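Task 17 of the worksheet. Students: predict the tertiary structure of the chain below and write it out as structure tokens. Keep your answer in the requested format; marks are given for formatting as well as content.
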Amino acid sequence: MPPLEFRGRLRPEDGSKPALILVHGAGGSATLWLNQLRHFKPKRSTLALFLPGHGPEGGPGRESIAEYVEAIRAFLDETKLERVVLAGLSMGGAISQLFALTYPERLAGLVLASTGAKLKVLPLIFETVAKDFEGYLKLMGQFSFSKSAPEEVKQLVLEEAREQKPSVVLADFRACDAFDVRERLSEIRVPTLVLSGEEDLLTPPKYSDYLVQHIPGAKLVRFAKAGHLLPVEKPEEFNAAIEKFLEELG
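Model answer:
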């Protein structure tokens, strides 16, 4: 039994194409990636992971980005996936960066969405998660989307976020706050695509600019009128950018 819950499916008949592994952010879940699963599942093995503590079966989360990296490595071992394309959003992008630095031989490509090499968390977020979880959800509704994001998209995301345990969410943000690989980005030698929303308030465009400037050969796609949660706010454009990247990988 794989150590992580997931959505999607393995396609043994597509063994020549590296599987696409989707990693959600802090306080999120695999449901963030439903648009991507619908798009990519018919074309290659595509799996959206529930990080430990974030899935329907619950359980404890992890205390550091490195621990999440090891959970994904164990999952790849268990499912016998030798080389994959790892796509991470926000905290998932931090996990993906550290995975690329720790296990580069396991990656055919890297997609870093709405993330940075250092993820400093606002004290206000820590305070509201700990004392007023509903207040935290309202805060995320304000920070996570562009001004033009449809209200139904916001509500869907917030309903999913409400299912998470505050203790797990708090641990996620602590892990993010401690994350810093700025001095190591030049060591990433995996083909890398960086995706960014021009109205992202949580990981502003300067974060993605820094990634592209310091990861050798990294390419940047920036989405107009888009906030932090690109997979749900701009699914068609987001999918098209990843599709093009996968085609270039061969």
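Marker's comment: The chain has one domain: 6-249. The beta strands are 6-9, 19-23, 46-49, 84-89, 107-113, 192-197, 219-223.
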